[in-house]
Amino acid sequence: MNFDSAGGGEPESAEGATPLSRSPRIAARQLEARRRILEAARLVVAEQGFAAAQVAVVASLAEVATGTIYRHFPSKASLFSEMLRQVCHRELEVVRSVLDNADLPASTRIADAVRTFVDRALRGGGLSYAVIVEPMDPDIDRVRLDARAALAEAFARAISDGIDSGQLPAQAPRLRGAAIVGAFLEAVVAPLDERPVPADIRDSVSRETAAFCRSAVSGSTAVRETSG
Prior knowledge:
Radius of gyration: 19 Å
Distance between the termini: 35 Å
Strand content: under 5%
Structural class: mainly alpha
Helix content: 55-70%
C-alpha cells in the first residue's frame, strides 16, 4: 500500500468491533459497511487531517448513517485509531517484506527498506503528513507509537541477523533500529510540507536517507546494548 491508497486483507482489531450477525448475508453487509467506513475515514484524514476530520463527513462519504458508524466504532477516536492501525500495518508489512529478502546483504536490505518507506511516505501526501507529523488525540497517538516500535523492532531484527552472519559489525541492534526509524521519519517531515512532493525531491530524500541509514549500521564503531 502507498500511504495514499487502500489495501485489504489485514487483520482488524477487535477493539470497537460489533459482533457480526449469524446470518451470512447480514454479516457480509456489516463487513462491507465497515470496510467502506474505514476507507472513507482514510480519505477524510488525507484531505482534512485528524483534527478536522468529522464522523458525519465520514458517514456521508461511506454512504451510511452516522449511527451505523457508532455501531461499529464506539467513538471517533476508536474509528480513527483503527484506520491508522490499518495504514501502519500495511506499511510495516511492506518494510518487513524488503528486510526479509535473504538474497541481499543485510546493509542493502536495510537501505532498500528505508528507501521504500520514504518514497511511499512522500507519495502519500496529506495522509502521510497526518500519520507522521500531525498532533493526535492521545488514544490515536498510542497507535502511532506502537507502529514506530514495531518498525524499530523489524530493523533491529535485520541488524541482529546481519551481525550473526558476519555481514555487519558488532553494535546495539535495538538502539540502532530505533535510530533508523527516527531518522527516516524525521527526514520526510520538511518535504511533506510541499504536497505533492516533486519526483526529484522524493528521489533525493529517499536516496540520501537510505545511504545515511546504511552507513549507520555498516560502520566499524561498536555500541554496547544498554539496559532499561
